[in-house]
Specification:
By secondary structure, this protein is α+β, with helices and mostly antiparallel strands. The chain has one domain: OB fold (Dihydrolipoamide Acetyltransferase, E2P). Helices cover about 20% and strands about 30% of the residues. The chain contains one helix and seven strands. The strands form two sheets. The chain has a five-stranded antiparallel β-sheet with strand order 3-2-1-4-7. Strands 5-6 form a two-stranded antiparallel ribbon. The relative contact order is 0.17. The model has no long low-confidence stretch (mean pLDDT about 90).
Length: about 90
C-alpha cells in the first residue's frame, strides 16, 4: 500500500459477483463485499482507503482514485515502451 495522508491505495484485481479482490501496494490481498465499495467499480480501478490506526482499511470510506489509476496506466505504458526499445528482437537460446 502506498501511504498518503488520507490512507492507502488498493487496486481492484478481480470482481466476481458480490466479491471484490483488492491488492494493496504492499502485495497483501483482501476479499471485500462489493456493496462495501463505491461504484462504478471494475477490474483495474484504484481506490483510496482510509486506514484505522494506520493499518486496518476502512472499506466503507473507500473512494475511487481515477487520477491514480491513470498515473499507473501511464507508468505501465512507459515501462512497456522502454522494454520494447531495449529488446533486440532475437530469441533467447538457453
Amino acid at each position: 500500500m502506498t501511504d498518503s495522508r488520507d490512507g492507502a491505495y488498493f487496486a481492484v484485481d478481480q470482481v466476481d459477483g458480490n466479491q471484490v479482490t483488492l491488492i494493496g501496494d504492499d502485495g497483501r490481498q483482501y476479499e471485500v463485499l462489493r456493496s462495501s465499495l463505491p461504484s462504478p467499480l471494475e477490474e483495474g480501478s484504484v481506490l483510496m482507503v482510509r486506514l484505522a490506526d494506520g493499518v486496518q482499511p476502512l472499506w466503507e470510506d473507500a473512494r475511487l482514485a481515477p487520477d491514480e489509476r491513470e498515473r499507473r496506466l501511464k507508468r505501465a505504458a512507459e515501462l512497456l515502451e522502454h522494454l520494447g526499445q531495449s529488446d533486440s528482437g532475437e530469441d533467447v537460446v538457453l
